[in-house]
Amino acid sequence: MATTACHGCLQLPPPFPIPRAAFGLVSKRGIKSISTPRHTRFTRGGEGLPVLQTSITAALERKAYTTPLRTGALGTKKGMSAIYDTETGRRRACTIVQMDRVQVVAHKTRQKHGYYAVQVGSGWKHPSNVTRPLLGHYAEHGVSPKRHLVEFRVRDERGLLDIGEMIGPGWFQEGQYVDAKANSRGMGFAGGMKRHGFKGQPASHGVSLTHRSMGSAGQSQGGGSRVLPGKKMPGRMGGHQVTTQNVKVMKVDEEKGIVVLNGCIPGPDGCVVKLSDAIKKPWPEIPMVTSAAQAVAEPLRETV
Amino acid sequence: MASLTPILRPTSCWKTLLRRSRQQKMCIRCLTTFEPPTVPLPPPPRLPSSYPSPFKLSRGIREPINKIKTYPPPPSARNKYPCPLDEWTAMHLKDLDPTGSRTRLFARNNPDVPNAGDILLVTFKNGDPFAGYCISIKRRGVDTAILLRNRMMVTGVEMWVKIYSPNVTAIEVVKRAEKRARRARLYYMRKPKHDRGSVEGEVKEYLKRRRLIRSGALGVKDPTMSAKRPEQAKSGVKAS
Asked: How many domains does chain A have?
């Protein structure tokens, strides 16, 4: 509060400013609009206006159609085999994927992280090999340290499977379709013929030592005397994520932890495979087991 | 006349002298001349008995001050079934080959195992039988297969036969190779120079002989029927 200095001393400014509320009006410099803002199609926050197409909300809405309703699972590719239909004698190649201690570790929410996702871990890692920050992350959610950690985007909070829930092979139904994602087999540094399917050069007719080379990379003066961005060239091949869509689940063995998929999937044997419901097929009609979905009471189904 | 320089020279040193003295003064000023009276530190508070002494070697594992709690892993299907592919194969072969005759026929430890170069006859559930030189054997569990090569009309024909396919009713050895082939895969037979041509004659002779044996005309026992366990000896050969 304003204290008066002693009369004999020099007049000093009060040590504490007087609250502005004590005065009726305080002049404030600046620009103030006289008219209230009108709602146009460019203003935000208007009632009944469509969501801006450049906003995160709109982006999520656009992606909602292809975002799975429930989380996927992690597996290890064990190898390929075949199934015979004993009646028709038809043979089908199949891939065996084993799921090991797949568990929900954490959630990502729209409010906190900007999107809904389920963080899923698989396997087990000795705690001495896990960094302290990550150990804390596992301890916070009451989950043992995991060998692999991935995220699966889900459409809304109904898809957030409870933390600590185990995801077994029974998560997928026999006959349903899944998308299998895995890192492809690394080819190392590969030439243009192998990497992009270039034709190469003829074996003869004067070609010397350049039978498998990529040839010309573009024009000279007419084309700007430069190599256009994105020009296909030799380089590292493979080792990136590849998705095989619409893979049918042929068999599920809960005890052995295996899912038998029709045909082949990317990656070498022993690689980590991400399995999730196929986005190009109707979502499987499986009642949701999440606590958020139980509140909704009805099974989660496609809402278009 | 003497110049003024010798007289002025001593005065010119003054500046340096003054600066030096000033610096000395500053140094003197920096020296600590005052020392507060030493107050004895208060005695340390009573330490807990578990507090490790810095002079004593601690016994056992020292726990970190803030240890993060870890949870035990759930039971693992991977540790219990480390080779699901083998189990899958075994389980599937039980359905495809209940007697185990096909597996035994192509087992490596079978002394009568068909080798590359032998002539094999495969009978299918629906359709004509196919015979040819076995030019390759691929042992891959459920996908175990043989590659047969024959000549039909004037064209060379090859067929991969999956031995566990339900469509295959029988696999018979028509004729053994006179000499063991030095290669496991006889792909050189695709070249006209090495092509052995049709196996029609050998198969006809074999079928004739088989008919005679089964009718008992030759006075030789049918090995498939006289075996101790005919079911196992058959290896898919039709009894008729």
From this structure: 1
